[in-house]
Amino acid sequence: MKYAHSLEFSVRDYECDMQGVVNNGAYQNYLEHARHEFLQSKGISFSEMVENRINLVVVRAELDYLDSLKSNDHFTVCSNIRKISRLRFEFSQDIFRIPDQRHMLQAKIIGTSLNQRGRPFVLNELSRLYDK
Fold first, then answer.
1. Is residue 132 part of a domain?
2. H or E element: which one contains 21?
3. Closest CA to 128 of 34, 44, 36, 5
4. CATH value at residue 74
5. What's the rounded Cα separation, in Å, for the pair 2 and 21?
6. Where are the alpha helices (DSSP H) in 11-123?
7. Domain for residue 94, yes or no?
8. pLDDT, tens digit, for every residue of 2-13?
9. What is the pLDDT of residues 76-111, one digit of tens each?
10. Is 64 a catalytic residue?
11. Any alpha helices (H) in the chain, and if so which ranges?
């Protein structure tokens, strides 16, 4: 599969639980950081949107944990974005361990844009990123 964006990470010790694997909540942090970096790479500043009282919000997160990352593992978060309804978009994100490219996690993150009044709307800057 071809991805619009990818970002490399390393697992830090404090992200692991007592079993020695990455805590399931840490994966959501990886995914969120990758989404923000993706937007930044396309000239969309998350912090500027917030300053203008425009918010991108997650309305649903679906994560399939396929295998466990461990301390010091290196991995890539790969992301795509597409329109799924008039007001909603979906980030499809996959995590692959480096160097064997083992598929560790598959995620669908559904979101929307909220205007200054807290109402959903179509953010034109995002629209140009959607897969065609």
1. no
2. none
3. 44
4. 3.10.129.10
5. 28
6. 24-41, 46-51
7. yes
8. 999 999 999 999
9. 999 999 999 999 999 999 999 999 999 999 999 999
10. no
11. 24-41, 46-51, 124-127
